[in-house]
Write a structure and sequence with these properties.
This protein has helices at about 5-15, 30-40, 75-80, 85-100, 125-140, 150-160, 165-170, 190-195, 200-210; strands spanning about 60, 65-70, 110, 145-150, 175, 180-185. By secondary structure, it is α/β, with parallel strands linked by helices. It has a 6-stranded mixed sheet with strand order 1-3-2-4-6-5, sandwiched between helices. Helix 2 packs antiparallel against helix 5 (about 125-140). It binds iron/sulfur cluster (SF4). Iron/sulfur cluster (SF4) binds near residues 41, 49, 50 and 131. The site of iron/sulfur cluster has 14 residues, from helix 5.
């Protein structure tokens, strides 16, 4: 157990909330830009996925967060509830975050696509092309210290590559012109199907924790 993990263990045991660096509150113009973006996404019809959605799934969490987690696309429960990463995958993500001393209220969570693909099929290139303008704007407004891309769709879009996920893990990448640090890991839904890789995912999370220090 590392020194940080030991500290977290003692803090949790004593019921003391962990200290997290907070950014200054967003200025009114940034808050207005978030609201406008949410409205834009809620009424978006830029690709065919709008026809089958119950609602858009914009993103959720702390808009002053240092860490954003980017996944693939809403599934059934996300489409029903309007929130990313709910259901069993979401519960696993919560446990993964907890393992490095974070919870949902301290991070921001979003997907590459804001509408559910039918029967949870993989996103199509034309859908990714249309929808990622929204994610790009979320990242521009959030200005996180670190991006955690979970799954190949998030990693491939954000890094503009087609490299297998296994070769993207384990090192620090950078996103966009601002060169925001980015770490790649497995999607929680994949880990539910392949629990043997949870150990590797934990190693990625330790990398996240160390990068945020
Ligand atoms: Fe618009 Fe994205 Fe939904 Fe397509 S998936 S309709 S681009 S919000």
């Amino acid at each position: 157990m590392s020194a940080n993990e030991l500290n977290y263990y003692y803090l949790d045991t004593m019921g003391i909330q962990r200290w997290v660096t907070a950014k200054p509150k967003a200025d009114p113009a940034t808050q207005a830009a978030w609201l406008l973006l949410e409205k834009t996404v809620a009424s978006c019809t830029a690709c065919d996925l709008h026809q089958g959605r119950t609602q858009t799934v914009f993103g959720v969490g702390n808009k002053q967060a240092d860490l954003i987690i980017v996944g693939e696309a809403p599934g059934y429960y996300e489409d029903q509830q309007g929130e990313p990463f709910v259901g069993r995958g979401g519960q696993l993500l919560d446990r993964m975050l907890k393992s490095i001393g974070l919870d949902r209220q301290q991070v921001y969570i979003a997907n590459v696509l804001k509408c559910r693909p039918p029967k949870n099929r993989d996103p199509l290139p034309r859908e990714v092309e249309k929808c990622t303008q929204h994610l790009d704007q979320q990242l521009a407004l959030l200005q996180p210290k670190l991006i955690l891309a979970v799954g190949r769709y998030a990693a491939h879009y954000l890094l503009q590559c087609n490299t297998p996920l296994s070769r993207l893990r384990g090192r620090l990448h950078h996103y966009g012109q601002q060169q925001i640090p980015l770490i790649v890991s497995y999607h929680p839904a994949y880990l539910l199907r392949n629990p043997i890789d949870k150990r590797k995912a934990y190693s990625d999370l330790l990398h996240v924790s160390a990068t945020l220090q």
